């Protein structure tokens, strides 16, 4: 109560600082006048009286200072004293202080660093009223956890009905970000692109940093009044244009079409989904311009590539808005597909649901990274707990050493509260310093983590891991919890000091043992540390083994030798492409260091592939629900170029022409699934569909290929098919071509320059991009790598901290029993007996901790199952390995001080008494 | 706690109690309080402005006294301090504590040598 009033008074004083100053002046003047008056009345002359009065009053400024100080004096002054004293105490033992602060900085910093990433994933979008943004999803999409995408006509119809809400926007948010090539020829210059509706930026309340954002007028087929316009991100503006002020109205070439830059978006706006940023935004109406060579998505039956969001009216609930939207559902379908009712039933059977978008609960990145990062957050908080236990132990040891000091202060009249407060202030200083240093660690660590996530990836993962208020608040809260964990016990112990005991003469040997030895508390702390470390080490071991399993899993390719050139031939006529492909492969194969070269429109682990459905005689006919079977359309030598093995039959050959017998190769999984008798070669399968006006083609299986990974090193390998490129079931040759070369050496990127020259020699207008297969494999398990590396790092950190704790416990025990040991040795005890004596307790504590830790781990690791791969949550190798490792480290940590105690001279020990 | 009544010869912390005591009869301004302290103690305590004013601020802050500007006997303006009910209660308590301590100290000081 008094504190509140004082604070209020202090605030008032601050607010009316001038008024109270003036009042004080007046009061002092009145006092002076009284004094002068009194002196005059005793017969002094006026000027003499004035002088005498001034002299008697002393310095007015000093008086005022003293009055001003009263406001804070008692509480703040005393606290300030404590702080200065604590700072002096900490400065006197720099080693302890540095160890404590570094431990805390790492512990708190690691927590904050992971939190910045989690925060980046869950932080509300930097748009106006994010809580009123609702993503148009459907029951099935939400239930199965895939992103809801809509075709362009459906968006047009929702957009036309946006009056029911506070507006609606659409953007190409489904799947991986669009990649726009900004280079006109030669090596591709790929950036993240997005198609947005004309009202996208204005409705979200994202202003242009420079120039303007789009208007609905820009979003017209073929462009609005300003023609083809684009808005670029702050990042691209800085990277590509060096932040030039005159970037507006410059031309940027996207997929070989010129666009005018009309604006730059602000730096904090990374798009509507964490993990997916954009560099260039283009109105949806201009999509045909960019996809002109591949077929427009908005003209005709395009893919469901659009994410649609509505903004709720201020008092509209998600349920009410969902209800409104569902009433429109039939009308939307009929208007969007006036001539095609074939999907009507399926469309209406999967009702719209509005999901909160501004809170990012639907973001793909959040779904992908939330679990690993929350797991990491738990891991680092356990590390912090262990660190706290260590610091508490250090403080308790110091408290034992400072027992005398405390006794003297208590005897001199310091209250228990004052003594406890002194210890708390010391702990607070440590915690505050640790938190400040921790923020630095977090600022660096957050970016390092995001960079690690982006490693090996084509498009960087955009997570805004900035230090903002939530991060600062999190760090402060962590520091406070930390402080309570490590600072409370020493403070309570300091308050319990009994001056009489401490000041009495005899040393520890003769001093009556307190009933509850401090060793019990310390032993408990260390046992808890051991248990937590064991748990962490087990978790880390499981993650490392998971990654090891993934990384050593056979890919089915010569992973470390393959270089892939993704070539864009969209500037050529489809009829010329077969011959061009031929020439490109020949040119690439001639480059020195290239062992084999081949091409296909798609490549493994690229995230996109062709897929088909087939009918196998004897198997039930496929239906729409079946997963489509990935299909590669390859040139002869493709398997050789990727280092895949043909187990039976033959490769496609030059003889397999469009006009010759249709052939196909299947992978092992396909053969096993459909031809369990093991005789696939020579059998035939049939396409489950056919292009307009043709009949379904039957294809003869000419070979079986060894299994190879398809989209990720984690996936179960699906049945796959390979057909000659010349017999493509998709009609005209697609403009994208992946030329794969196998190099003789194991660093295939080294030959990229020569390949680029060779390809450009064939056609100057070509545009291409290089990736190694190894990068792609690594990218597919980047998350597992990150989790394994970090958890191993923190596991080892926990091990070290626990070892330090055990070392400390043993040293302390040895110091406590120093005299006893001295006497025993003097009486003829053997060293080994003394070592056993000192070690017994530490080893008991360790054993108890190990048992508890293993039990907790066995119960807890099942929650990690989803993150493991081909490793059991109670993997015996991990459990046994961790136990052995820990036992060795713990015994070493305890043996060193025990031995030191045993070889010390008995005289020295006794002299200390 | 942090008060320093240097030069006034006062035991730490007692100035506040004495000021409350002076105000027990009637509200008074700063100069008057100082003079009254000197008079009652028959010149033993000479409290100067440097000690008085911080004490006023302290007591005001703790809600033991209040202040208002009034005209003095010779029609000047001065800040008059008055006891609040809390101040009155505090004074009673402090007086009691002080008397207990003082008599204990007196007993020790006047004890026979043998008793020590």
Describe, in plain words, how this protein is organized in 3D.
Chain A has 913 residues and is an alpha+beta fold. Chain A contains 28 helices and 24 strands. In chain A, the strands form four sheets. In chain A, strands 15, 16, 17, 18, 19, 20, 21 and 22 form an eight-stranded mixed β-sheet that branches. In chain A, strands 3, 5, 6, 7, 8, 9 and 10 form a seven-stranded mixed β-sheet that branches. Chain A has a five-stranded mixed β-sheet with strand order 4-24-13-23-14. Residues 505-517 of chain A have low confidence and may be disordered. In chain B, a hairpin with a 5-residue loop joins β2 and β3. The relative contact order of chain B is 0.16. Chain B is elongated, with a radius of gyration of 16 Å. A three-stranded antiparallel β-sheet of chain B has the order 1-3-2. Chain B contains four helices and three strands; from the N terminus they run αβααββα. With 116 residues, chain B is α+β, with helices and mostly antiparallel strands. Chain B has helices at 14-23, 30-40, 49-61, 85-110, and strands at residues 28-29, 65-71, 77-83. The chains are: A alpha+beta (913), B alpha+beta (116). Chains A and B meet through α1, α2 and α4 of A and α2, α3 and β3 of B.
The number of distinct β-strands of chain A equals: 24
Give the fraction of residues assigned to helices of chain A: 40-55%
Name the helicity range of chain B.
40-55%
- Helix-strand category of chain B: alpha+beta
Sum up the overall morphology of chain A in one term.
Answer: globular
Number of helices of chain B: 4
């Amino acid at each position: 109560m008094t504190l509140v009033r004082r604070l209020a008074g202090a605030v008032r004083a601050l607010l009316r600082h001038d008024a109270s100053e003036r009042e004080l002046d007046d009061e002092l003047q009145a006092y002076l006048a009284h004094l002068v008056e009194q002196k005059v009345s005793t017969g002094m002359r006026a000027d003499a009286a004035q002088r005498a009065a001034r002299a008697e009053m002393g310095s007015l400024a000093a008086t005022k200072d003293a009055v001003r100080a009263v406001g804070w004096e008692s509480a703040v002054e005393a606290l300030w004293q404590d702080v200065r004293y604590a700072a002096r105490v900490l400065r006197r033992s720099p080693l302890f202080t540095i160890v404590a602060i570094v431990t805390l900085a790492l512990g708190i910093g690691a927590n904050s660093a992971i939190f910045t990433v989690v925060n980046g994933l869950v932080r509300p979008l930097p748009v106006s009223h994010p809580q009123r943004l609702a993503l148009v999803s459907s029951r099935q999409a939400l239930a199965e956890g895939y992103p809801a995408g809509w075709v362009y006509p459906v968006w047009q119809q929702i957009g036309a009905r946006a009056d029911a809400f506070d507006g609606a926007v659409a953007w190409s948010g489904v799947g991986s970000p669009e990649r726009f090539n900004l280079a006109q020829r030669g090596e591709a210059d790929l950036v993240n692109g997005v198609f947005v509706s004309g009202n996208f930026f204005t409705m979200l309340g994202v202003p242009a940093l420079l120039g303007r954002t789009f208007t609905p007028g820009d979003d017209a087929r073929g462009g609005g009044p300003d023609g083809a316009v684009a808005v670029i991100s702050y990042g691209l503006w800085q990277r590509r244009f060096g932040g030039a002020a005159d970037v507006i109205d410059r031309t940027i070439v996207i997929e070989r079409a010129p666009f005018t830059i009309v604006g730059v978006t602000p730096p904090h706006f990374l798009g509507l989904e964490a993990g997916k940023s954009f560099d260039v935004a283009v109105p949806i109406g201009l999509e045909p311009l960019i996809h002109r060579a591949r077929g427009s998505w908005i003209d005709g039956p395009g893919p469901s590539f659009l994410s649609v969001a509505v903004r709720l009216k201020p008092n509209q609930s998600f349920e009410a808005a969902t209800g409104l939207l569902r009433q429109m559902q039939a009308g939307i379908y009929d208007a969007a597909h006036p001539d095609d009712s074939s999907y009507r039933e399926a469309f209406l059977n999967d009702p719209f649901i509005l999901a909160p978008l501004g809170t990012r609960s639907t973001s793909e990145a959040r779904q992908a990274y939330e679990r690993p990062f929350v797991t990491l957050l738990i891991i680092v908080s356990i590390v912090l707990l262990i660190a706290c236990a260590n610091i508490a132990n250090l403080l308790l040891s110091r408290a034992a050493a400072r027992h005398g000091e405390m006794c003297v202060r208590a005897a001199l009249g310091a209250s228990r509260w004052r003594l406890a407060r002194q210890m708390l202030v010391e702990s607070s200083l440590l915690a505050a310093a640790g938190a400040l240093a921790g923020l630095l660690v977090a600022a660096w660590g957050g970016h390092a983590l995001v960079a690690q996530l982006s490693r090996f990836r084509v498009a960087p993962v955009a997570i805004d891991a900035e230090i903002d208020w939530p991060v600062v608040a999190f760090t402060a809260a962590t520091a406070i919890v930390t402080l309570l964990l490590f600072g409370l016990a020493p403070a309570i112990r300091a308050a319990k000091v009994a001056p009489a005991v401490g000041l009495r003469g005899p040393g520890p040997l003769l001093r009556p043992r307190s009933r509850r030895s401090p060793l019990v508390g310390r032993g408990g702390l260390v046992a808890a540390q051991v248990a937590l470390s064991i748990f962490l080490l087990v978790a880390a071991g499981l993650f490392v083994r998971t990654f090891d399993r993934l990384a050593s899993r056979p890919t089915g390719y010569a992973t470390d030798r393959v270089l892939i050139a993704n070539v864009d031939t969209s500037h050529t006529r489809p009829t010329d492409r077969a011959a061009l492909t031929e020439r490109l492969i020949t040119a690439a194969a001639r480059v020195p260091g290239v062992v084999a070269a081949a091409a296909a429109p798609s490549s493994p682990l690229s995230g996109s592939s062709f897929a088909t459905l087939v009918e196998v005689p004897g198997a039930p006919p496929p239906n729409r629900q079946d997963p489509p079977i990935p299909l590669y359309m390859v040139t002869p030598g493709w398997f050789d170029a990727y280092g895949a093995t043909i187990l039976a039959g033959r490769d496609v050959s030059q003889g397999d022409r469009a006009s010759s017998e249709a052939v196909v190769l299947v992978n092992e999984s396909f053969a096993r699934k459909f031809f369990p008798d093991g005789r696939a070669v020579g059998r035939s399968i049939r396409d489950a569909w056919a292009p307009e006006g043709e009949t379904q083609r039957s294809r003869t299986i000419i070979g079986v290929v060894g299994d190879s990974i398809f989209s990720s090193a984690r996936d179960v390998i699906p049945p796959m098919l390979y057909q000659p490129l010349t017999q493509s079931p998709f009609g005209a040759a697609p403009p994208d071509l992946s030329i794969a070369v196998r190099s003789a050496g194991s660093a295939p990127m080294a030959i990229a320059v020569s390949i680029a020259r060779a390809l450009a020699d064939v056609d100057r207008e070509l545009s291409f991009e290089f990736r190694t297969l190894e990068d792609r494999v690594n990218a597919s398990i980047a998350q597992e790598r990150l989790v394994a590396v970090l958890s191993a790092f923190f596991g080892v950190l926990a091990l070290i901290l626990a070892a330090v704790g055990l070392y400390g416990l043993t040293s302390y025990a040895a110091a406590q029993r120093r005299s006893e040991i001295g006497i025993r040795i003097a009486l003829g005890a053997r060293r080994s007996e003394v070592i056993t004596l000192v070690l017994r307790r530490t080893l008991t504590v360790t054993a108890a901790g190990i048992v508890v830790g293993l039990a907790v781990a066995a119960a807890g690791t099942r929650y990690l199952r989803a993150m493991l791969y081909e490793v059991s949550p109670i993997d015996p190798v991990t459990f046994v390995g961790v136990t052995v490792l820990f036992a060795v480290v713990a015994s070493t940590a305890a043996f060193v001080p025990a031995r030191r105690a045993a070889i010390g001279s008995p005289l020295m020990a006794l002299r200390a008494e | 706690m942090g008060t320093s009544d240097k030069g006034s010869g006062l035991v730490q912390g007692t100035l506040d109690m004495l000021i409350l005591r002076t105000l027990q009869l009637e509200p008074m301004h700063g100069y008057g309080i100082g003079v009254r302290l000197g008079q009652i103690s028959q010149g033993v305590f000479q409290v100067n402005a440097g000690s008085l004013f911080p004490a006023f601020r302290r007591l005001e802050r703790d809600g033991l006294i209040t202040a208002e500007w009034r005209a003095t006997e010779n029609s000047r303006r001065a800040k008059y301090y008055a006891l609040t009910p809390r101040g009155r209660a505090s004074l009673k308590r402090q007086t009691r504590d002080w008397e207990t301590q003082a008599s204990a100290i007196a007993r020790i000081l006047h004890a026979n040598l043998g008793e020590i």
